[in-house]
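Record format v2
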Amino acid sequence: MKHTPLYQAHIDAGGKMVDFGGWEMPLNYGSQIEEHHQVRNDVGMFDVSHMTTIDFKGVEAKKFLQTLIANDVDKLKTQGKALYSCMLNETGGVVDDLIVYYQDDENYRMVINAGTTEKDIAWINTQAEGFDVSVEPKLDLAMIAVQGPNAREKVYEAIPGVEDVCGELKPFNSASLGGLFIARTGYTGEDGFEIMLPEKSAEFTWKMLMEVGVKPCGLGARDTLRLEAGMSLYGSEMNDEVSPLEAALTWTVDLTDEDRRFVGRDALETLKDKGANNTIVGLVLEGKGVIRDHQKVVTNNGEGKVTSGTFSPTMGKAIALASVPKGSEGLCEIEMRNKMVSAKIVKPPFVRNGKVLV
Amino acid sequence: MSDVRDDRQYTETHEWILDNGDGTYTMGISDHAQALLGDMVYVELPVEGDEASAEDEFCVVESVKAASGVYAPADLEVVEANEALDDEPELVNSSCYDDGWLVKFKSDGIDGLMDAATYAETLD
């Protein structure tokens, strides 16, 4: 199995290591629920070095990304600005979801998922043929996500100089400091930074963060946090066969510029005219129990299925994202271990910045 | 390493059974099982008087990670369920052999259980 540069740090911290798409990663360091609360209430950090950074450079970098992804990088005008998007295949299915960071029109950085890295790089290289752009995967970068209401303060305390560079950084923006690339982004619904850094600096930086009281958190808490925040997970809410229009990700698709013929656009336009059948909604279980992935959901408008189900530590209830027929509302039933149980259909997010919103 | 108590017996599916000596037994899940499942968030218990046949799934423990059935080790009748778990399912994590017990039941006898040493060997 593959290891990140922080592997030994996880073992030392008592991390319970699991196979995560070929990477041996910490599921938790004791209690997933405590780690979850730690991030909601204070600050925690995640090793996300298994994710992949790719730099795009060249005179046609902008033109290429405008073809590759469904959101329009023309929205990015200031250095460091970030944009969330999906890249699509010809049938409008999602190859991956990603964040792209702007440096200038000839220089962009992208972060893609770990489990899809090989597929993505092959796809990107194929699409890049004929463009004057270089595709440079930065496989030697580590990435630490520091998240929580006190995350930024703790990062300033742990890493000298960051406050000078990032003190005024707005959400969804990034800045560089020496070898560090620091983005005010995350996957928890809390404030914080995602820090990309050379792998040889990873363990030192991790220890500096621990020293100021930032607690390591595992992938278990990362999943419950992102689910409470209503954020999609590639492979669950969307995949090669599900388009953004069916995954409540229409906001990440930009059809404004008629001339921007990005990959998958034709299929999306056809689907848009016809009307997508399904969408992603949130579910809150009325009674006791835990909603699990793939359980059947019956709504007022037909059948669907749970795409991500869990127990929400913040709400003390089971919650889920589910793919259901459009127009589903009110109460629905979930088939749970051979019983039908009642759940309320809600609009995600469930929790943001420590507050329950549903 | 997992804690295995000498005063009770174990099943292959990681339940422990304690003979109370009066025709009743107390049952829970082993330390190994609770550690594997992770933070417990819900325990579905039978009620007094419920009957189960050997190998029936008659309780469910649900952690953040997964739902796991708890199986009847013999034909049995439930005499008490641990209601404290309704509000504090985490007792199964913090005290799996004491406060985190699941059910007490009556049975004519149970075959095929492992003693602590044998069970401990299966965990290696």
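The two ends of chain A are 40 Å apart (CA to CA).
Chain A has nine helices and 21 strands.
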